[in-house]
Design brief:
The structure is a homotetramer of 245-residue chains. With 245 residues, the first copy, chain A, is an all-alpha fold. Chain A has 11 helices and no strands. Chain A is elongated, with a radius of gyration of 24 Å. The N terminus and C terminus of chain A are likely disordered. Chains in contact: A-B, A-C, B-D, C-D. The interface between A and B is large, with 85 and 85 residues. The structure holds a DNA duplex (21 and 21 nucleotides).
DNA sequence: GATGAATGAGGATTCATTCAT
DNA sequence: CATGAATGAATCCTCATTCAT
């Protein structure tokens, strides 16, 4: 409490700024913590660093979070806001093909999640899942499950409308999720350790993934024989395929 | 070489056992360390735990590895053996369609890497990449780059033989890699925190991924419009696509 | 500067005490460390002991000194304050014979250094010199060299004024230094392990050393005034000795 | 036990060499230990280093010495052999002035002790005295006391023969001891950390010390013969000095 | 005897957490 | 509320000592 409090005029402003900052404190701490947890992992991040990056002292951090672990949980909770409700609605009323929906889904996910700091949570959860079973379960139920349901609904819509031919719907969702998870991992892990210019370009990456996912790799758009397996009937396959090509 | 070694009976065996153990030590420690690093991360793993799991005392670990960090590096180095040379050769002489090659590639990768402990290295590297820039660079050059080149060659073969139609070859490789990385992450992270029965079935997962990758999602095997983007001309797209369908 | 500081009563005092303690910490730690390093050597001294003797916990020590080694360096640095500047001046203006100067020099050295904790540094440096080459060089240049120069100047003065006859000036300085070093060693090492009563009496020791140094051992010489002391009974002594001469 | 044992001829030699070495073991270990203890102090010396320098394994060291502490004691004991009996006798029958005796005493001490590894013991004891009270007492009684008695006897002789005028005999001995201790300290501590060329020249140092001790610094005295040396012209000197007295 | 692999108590250092100010 | 000095449990690492070979 400074003397300035007694000085009229300026006082209010300062007071106001201070309170604004005060309310912003937890948020600033969560931001700083997210950055550092993502960058170095939970264990390797020191609370003092978090506090310093948030511009407060170590003690202040513990004013807002009971422990480092609670801070971690708060970071996760804070960044997995139920955007799915909003998205669900958006997709419920989507006009257009299911292919467009998928493309739109991934594009919008990148813009609103993947490209933002929130994407760090994915990396964080993957790195620390085993150390925080409780928060992992929470994440599973708040993020993974809704996400899968959302994608599943898109795929179902495609199938119902005759746009998609999907053999194994339960696992097809991973064809959408896997590329996104990979992109996030690339951004926050190995990809971040690669020289400038060699890093993944997100838009191009997403475009490629969507194209292949939607279009397939085969030129003869006759679907690949999904029952084809490699061995032991390799020869047979070779013949059959050879014939087809 | 002592005379006692020539004396028949128990001596020889015990001697042998001791020497075998001595030679086995580093391997046992590396195994234990891999397990724990993958499970809990580098920082959260205590060297004493590693030693205990390997059945030795703390001090013994430091007999073989100068520090915890050296242990980490050794774990990574040990598990990224250049299997690629062997694989390259295998694929050089592969008889069959490129579709088969891809399917075979992923199947064999799962059997020989994904399903084994070695797959933990991927999770480990992704979690700790930023904390170990040196070993990350090593991993990049010893694992990631060769892996990408291998897959790229398969895709090129497919294109050359007229089997594949690939728009963006540089990024198409990620359509093969991403599913594998995702599978490993699932196995070692979130997926491991899920109740039995809900976990990913690797074979089915791979089958689905390959099918979709190869066959595409669209029933009309006319490729998706690769130039299609979502915004800002959303409406236009909707119309155009709507027309097509 | 908080308002609470302006509130009279206990607050202020306590605050003050805390701050005073905080500022005193490093000094208290250095004192404790000097004691223990001198007593047991660097390696055999545990930081926890140092902290305990300073009345703080282990962790607190590391708040002020990065490592045990830094603590050692700080201990040395702290205790070799450039008293030589002050002394040089004192001797520059010294009135009296060069014999008196020498006697005064050694007496004053004992009072201001030898008898104080600072003398432990000599023992410490001699014990640990080889383990701390860097700080040893520092000590050489900050203590030994200036000390030798100071003594050399006294001897030169004596020679110039025709009081001293010195054959080998470079080595004559050691006739002054050696007794002081020996005294310190005695105090802090073997001498400290001897039963009460057998220990060296510093004043008597210095008197003897000075007498012999000044007067020589041979009878065919007018003895130096062996009872001459600097103060306060200088006159009385002079008379007694004068009688003898 | 190697196979070579079964080969005739060479066997004996090898066996012989082995046994010779075997008996030399403890000595080699003591030598190595002395070196290292003197160089780094007791605590900072690792037994493994000692063993390595002696060319044996760590385990072997413990075959000969129960513990590191026992090794220390043995090192001290080994190097303080009662040379005093021999010296006492030598001095009992000394022909010549007491001044010569003193000069001879210091010269011979340097040759037989100061210049050899044994001098390291002094440094060692001074550094570690407080940590080894038991062995310190032993050292006091085996080395310091006899040494002081020896020197005292020389001084007494000088006084009795009217050669020396000594006011405080008890402390006069330190005028002989201090320079020697200082020389040893210089050799093994700070002096060893000084650039080549700046180091103390022992002979010159001793000459200076003896000259000053004998002759005094004051001009109003017949100088001690500064050219006096002990050998080879010992007899000549004896005569000359004898004449003077 | 000799070896050196193994041990584990001991010590330096870190860092989450507390609390007086 | 905010601070940051203080704490001490936790952890990495060392090294004297043991013991099976």
């Amino acid at each position: 409490m400074s003397l300035s409090k007694l000085i009229p005029g300026k006082t209010e402003e300062v007071q106001a700024k201070r309170e604004r900052r005060k309310e912003a404190r937890p948020g600033e701490l969560l931001d700083a913590a997210l950055d550092l947890f993502v960058e170095k992992g939970f264990a390797a991040t020191r609370v003092e660093e978090v506090a310093a990056r948030a511009g407060v002292s170590k003690g202040t951090l513990f004013l807002y979070f009971q422990s480092k672990e609670e801070l971690f949980k708060a970071v996760v909770r804070e960044n997995i806001s139920g955007r799915f409700a909003e998205w669900n609605e958006e997709f419920e009323t989507f006009q257009g093909t299911s292919a467009e929906m998928l493309r739109y889904c991934m594009t919008v996910w990148w813009e609103r999640v993947g490209a933002t700091k929130a994407s760090g949570i994915t990396k964080l959860m993957i790195s620390e899942a085993k150390n925080f079973p409780e928060i992992t379960a929470f994440y599973q139920q708040e993020v993974i499950d809704p996400g899968q349901r959302l994608i599943r609904r898109i795929l179902e819509r495609g199938v119902e409308r005759g746009e998609f031919r999907i053999v194994d719907l339960d696992y097809a969702v991973y064809s959408v999720i896997a590329p996104m998870v990979f992109l996030v991992m690339s951004k926050h892990s190995l990809g971040a350790c690669v020289p400038q210019g060699k890093a993944l370009l997100p838009e191009r990456y997403i475009a490629s993934q969507v194209d292949i996912m939607l279009g397939g790799l085969l030129t003869n758009t006759t679907p690949a024989d999904p029952t084809a397996t490699i061995s032991p009937d390799n020869a047979a396959n070779n013949k059959k395929n050879g014939a087809r090509n």
